[in-house]
Amino acid sequence: MQFTHLKLFKLYAAVALIAAPAVLAQGFAATCGSSGSEIVGTTFYATCTTDSGAQQSTSINLDNCVANYNGNLACATNGGYGGSCSGCEIVTGVQYMECYCTDDAGQQEASILDLDNCLSNYNGNLAC
Predict the structure, then answer these.
(1) Quick one: which of 7, 43, 47, 115 has the fewest CB in 10 Å?
(2) Residue 1's beta-bridge partner residues?
(3) Secretion signal: which residues (predicted)?
(4) pLDDT on residue 33
(5) What is the pLDDT of residue 70?
(6) How far apart are the C-alpha atoms of 96 and 17, rounded to whole Å?
């Protein structure tokens, strides 16, 4: 009987892993305003709505959320884009970041990333 319970436990664990795949966070733009949002170095600052409806200033180090792949910005855990990108700024609303990133040939390429695919708002706090 114990063998059956172990099998069921493993089955439930496998289903839970499949049902909740490890993906980067997304969808902060709907609850974080563009007023006051900016990038300083690799830190993104914004004002986001908490679960209670209050506005809260928050920030996140985008090096933990964004990578440079051959001159192209992409969402990536611990991406470290700041080591090869510069001149980053928010270009539209709160969610689009433009940077100049070094490609594999050593050339600077302009790249725009939709941060809404990389970040989430958890009760007024930004997270990857």
Answers:
(1) 7
(2) none
(3) 1-25
(4) 85
(5) 97
(6) 31
User: Quick one: tokens of 83?
Assistant: 């080591």
pLDDT in tens, the chain (128 residues): 444 443 433 333 333 333 333 334 568 999 998 777 899 999 999 999 999 999 999 999 999 999 999 999 999 999 999 999 999 999 987 799 999 999 999 999 999 999 999 999 999 999 99
Fill in the DSSP letter of residue 128.
-
Residue holding tokens 């170095």?
Answer: 41
Write the CA distances from 57 to 7, 16, 43, 124, integer angstroms: 47, 34, 13, 8
Q: Which residues contact 5 (CB under 8 A, 6 or more apart)?
A: none
CA gap 37, 95 in Å, rounded: 9
- What structural domains and CATH numbers belong to the chain? 25-127 (2.30.60.10)
Q: Are strands 66-69 and 55-61 parallel, antiparallel or unpaired?
A: unpaired
Residue with tokens 């114990």: 2
